[in-house]
Amino acid sequence: MTITNAVLPASLRVSILHYCMEKKPHEACGFLLGRIDGATLSVTRFLPVPNIAARPERQFSMDPAVLIPIVTNPSSLYDPVVGLLHSHPSASSAPSVEDLQTAWRSMPSHWIVGLQDEEHCEIGVYCYHHFNHDPNRPGSISGDASSFTAIALSVVEDHDINCHP
Ligand SMILES: [Zn+2]
């Protein structure tokens, strides 16, 4: 089923934004853990991963020493990995062409923190589809509209999250 809604606790939103701001001017990256129930994805945890890209201001590459234990040993985690997050230190939260070509495309959700505007940090949540980049088609350079869909994000107060009643 297609994911159309994402739910993020307010406290996690603060931690994510704080971490991304702290990493400026570098891109921050990490995983989101949580649950998928039908069309709704609920985030329960953010796991930052160090960015070891050669040009961390413009791209991210997750440190394998931290990444591998997370993706190969899910039993040690509270919930499965449901999303991949990275920041755009000086751009909006829209996916870049490079983002849409990621090998992580099949991840259930992609989260981009746009820090272009200091006053207003924005978090975009997307589902990526197959991306056909055709250099002969000028319009394709900025990413095809059909290559991703936006997921509606709801930030909820932590006490609204139903743990175990
Ligand atoms: Zn990006």
TrEMBL record:
Q: Which residues cross the membrane?
A: none
Query: Mind listing the UniProt keywords for this protein, alphabetically?
Result: Hydrolase, Metal-binding, Metalloprotease, Protease, Zinc
InterPro entries, from UniProt? JAB_dom_prok, MPN, VirAsm_ModProt
Is Ribosomal protein one of the keywords? no
Cross-referenced Pfam families? Prok-JAB
Q: Tell me a GO biological process for this protein.
A: proteolysis
Every MPN domain range: 6-137
Molecular function (GO) terms for this protein are: metalloexopeptidase activity; zinc ion binding
Q: Does the record's keyword annotation contain Metal-binding?
A: yes
Q: Which domain of life is it from?
A: Bacteria
Report what the protein is called.
MPN domain-containing protein
